[in-house]
Amino acid sequence: MTDTVTFLHHPTSQPCRAVHQLMLETGVPFEEVIVNLMDGENETEEFKTTYNPTGQVPILVDGDFTLWESAAIGSYLAERFELPGNWLGRDMRQRARIQQYSHFHSTMLRRGAGAFFYTRFAECIWGPRDYSAEIAMGRYMLAESMPILETWLEARSHLCGDEISFADLLAFHEFVSHEAGAIIPSDEWARFPRTRAWFERLQQRPQARAVSGMIMEVGAMRRAGHMIPMTRRTSLAKGTAVKPGLPG
Amino acid sequence: MTDTVTFLHHPTSQPCRAVHQLMLETGVPFEEVIVNLMDGENETEEFKTTYNPTGQVPILVDGDFTLWESAAIGSYLAERFELPGNWLGRDMRQRARIQQYSHFHSTMLRRGAGAFFYTRFAECIWGPRDYSAEIAMGRYMLAESMPILETWLEARSHLCGDEISFADLLAFHEFVSHEAGAIIPSDEWARFPRTRAWFERLQQRPQARAVSGMIMEVGAMRRAGHMIPMTRRTSLAKGTAVKPGLPG
């Protein structure tokens, strides 16, 4: 089999950027395919049947093997390309700690993305409506998650230890989106000085900047009040509060 | 180090039962500690500081190593006790497939638990109120998840292949709770015959029955209209729709 994998993604997606950065940091050979999330390419039956029944990205294709879920992709890449142990764990305890984080992430910090999505994007899709309940839910998940990150960062320099790991990339790219959307005000950040310092350290990594350009541009456009044409019909199945009955 | 681990759990928790069954199926040596979820023992600051800042179970303690998140515990046990490969994967693709499922699970099927929780338990905690929005959210997540399981079970006998894996246990115990609460009516089940057959096959396993007795009893009590005294103050941070501002 060839050693080049195919990476289906979109740079506005936080989990996509985390995997993308992991591959750039470690030199995984890949070809990229941008999936047009903005117009719901990922929501077509063809896409769901071929790649992922949930319609989510990122997706990795390695020969006849197709894999989705960013955390599963990270672990797979670590085995497949024997990535340096810091990224997905050097021993079973560290691997478990990073997996623990990835699940905490999916159900806590990741769902804070609703604060960004419903503040900055929902209007582009469904027009001006009252999104305050969805935004409140996202802010609630952020408020539940950030003190936990802060506590961890009191004891160590990164989320799962004193080396950077894939857990840091997953978390970091949530905050990149919040930064792009100016979602977390400075007085809120002031309550989490270690998390802020960690975030700013990670921002300095060239590969972090390499994958974050588009979301920062899109965020700046939205903050300036420009609309972005988007026709995707459904809300996100995770990361944001799915709301039954939101207009299609 | 000793080979006996400590397992903190509660038998009404679906992820706890999945880990419990895994340990019984594979003969992992463990001592159990029941955490009194009903009265919110897991929500005390002492518990959160000692074990898990999210207050969730299951938790595994192995000497000086404390781990939470059921999927991370499963993977850790597989390495720690060299469990048979079917449970967490025989090769890197199978391991990745099971991890993929565990993340799909956390963000999709697991959140269907709200249908059970808000139908059968919420009233015991907060009294009679209108929980229809929370129940609708749980049912929505179930309705999104079940067709995907059905499709997978068209191609193979278990969720991640033709052998039972930890993915099956995670999913199975969600349906055990729905069964206990009579949440999924028979005409709904009729649309998912392969999933139903898979569920009934798994029900036959002695270790499945061994860990499910209490939830079936509690479910029967609630279906008969008996109240169960519960004083836990917060909603669940996952598996159900967290609602900011629900009365404490």
TrEMBL record, chains A, B:
It is found in: Cytoplasm. Residues 3-85 form the GST N-terminal domain. Keywords: Cytoplasm. Signal peptide: none annotated. It comes from the Bacteria. InterPro entries: Glutathione-S-Trfase_C-like, Glutathione-S-Trfase_C_sf, Glutathione_S-Trfase, Glutathione_S-Trfase_N, GST_C, GST_Theta, Thioredoxin-like_sf. Residues 91-227 form the GST C-terminal domain. Pfam families: GST_C, GST_N. Its main location: cytoplasm. Belongs to the GST superfamily. PANTHER family: GH16740P-RELATED, PTHR43917. This is Glutathione S-transferase family protein. It comes from Roseovarius ramblicola. The lineage of its organism: Bacteria, Pseudomonadati, Pseudomonadota, Alphaproteobacteria, Rhodobacterales.
